[in-house]
Design goal:
Elements lengths: L2 E12 L2 E11 L3 E5 L6 H8 L7 E6 L4 H10 L1 E5 L10 H8 L8 H10 L13 H14 L4 E5 L7 H14 L6 E6 L5 H4 L2 E6 L2 E7 H7 L1 E5 L14 E5 L2 E6 L2 H8 L4 E4 L2 H10 L5
Parallel strand pairs: 3-7, 3-8, 5-6, 6-7
Antiparallel strand pairs: 1-2, 1-4, 8-9, 10-12, 10-13, 11-12
Protein name: ATP-binding cassette domain-containing protein
GO molecular function: ATP binding
Pfam family, one: ABC_tran
Length: 288
């Protein structure tokens, strides 16, 4: 099985917004960062992957299986980590273990105890007393304690302090060492992905813009700076979006080799960060 998640021509329409004709593949054993601005469709896509929303059209397969006939088997193998509390606030971790544990065939009490201790989580305190970071740790402890093969994380670092964000990223790197897990990590904080992501999938206004290795993104995308006299209908085709100013232009390209061929040494080329790519892709909406 090469792909843990497969979305094939998936669409979902709401009033004023839609995920349109999504084709997404998430490779087994890797970390895929799912990026996009707030409202781009990340959470809608994740809800469809989790079978919390049904697509209007298309097919979703998880571990090569479909939800219609294999929902329980699929969800046995998925751990979901949300950016806030998904449990009844009056419960403590002992209560949650007692309720959640029997639902999973591979629940491991010893592993749960280990992660609770590692994350320094109080077993007897109500979840409502937990900080946002502690709630996220609790979700992660539960996901890991039933040996989840696919961990889906929806904005897990949003609102966390920088120190805890680094601790989380270190932990995720450790989890990937054995090669048995796949992580699908949705975020608009793109710097979190520089250290841990193997693949980057960018969604914009409900459409998948690209799904590439982080190496290919770094190789293909760049910021290009030059004087506006270099721009015409022929040269502008090398760019995804162009920002013009009196002093010159800054543009995003997804084809560095073409820029080098067209402009030679007449422009300055710089590496585009994921944040740069998101920003200029958004700017393209008013450009095309």
């Amino acid at each position: 099985m090469e792909h843990v998640i497969e979305l094939i021509n998936v669409s979902k329409t709401f009033k004023g917004f839609s995920v349109h004709n999504m084709n997404l593949e998430v490779k087994q054993g890797y970390v895929t960062g799912f990026i996009g601005a707030n409202g781009a469709g990340k959470s809608t896509t994740i809800k469809m992957i989790m079978n919390l929303l049904r697509p209007d059209a298309g097919e979703i397969r998880i571990f090569g299986l479909d939800y219609k006939t294999h929902e329980k088997a699929i969800k046995e193998r998925i751990g979901f980590v949300y950016d806030g509390n998904v449990f009844f606030e009056g419960l403590n971790l002992k209560d949650i273990k007692r309720i959640v544990g029997p639902a999973y065939k591979r629940w491991d009490d010893t592993l749960f105890k280990r992660y609770v201790e590692q994350f320094e989580l109080p077993l007897g305190k109500a979840i409502k007393t937990f900080s946002k970071g502690m709630q996220m740790k609790a979700s992660l402890a539960i996901a890991l304690s039933h040996h989840a093969e696919l961990i889906i994380m929806d904005e897990p670092t949003a609102g966390l302090d920088p120190i805890f964000r680094q601790e989380l990223l270190d932990l995720l790197q450790e989890l990937m060492l054995d090669g048995n897990r796949t992580i699908f990590f949705s975020t608009h904080i793109t710097t979190d992905l520089d250290r841990i992501a193997d693949y980057i999938a960018l969604i914009q206004k409900g459409k998948l813009v690209f799904n590439q290795t982080i190496h290919d993104v770094a190789e293909n995308y760049a910021l290009v700076k030059g004087t506006t006299d270099l721009l015409d209908k022929d040269t502008e085709r090398a760019f995804v979006h162009i920002h013009r100013a009196p002093t010159g232009f800054v543009a995003l390209t997804d084809n560095v080799k073409e820029v080098e061929h067209i402009f030679g040494g007449a422009v300055v080329t710089e590496r585009a960060s994921l944040e740069d790519i998101m920003y200029y892709m958004k700017g393209r909406e008013s450009y095309v």
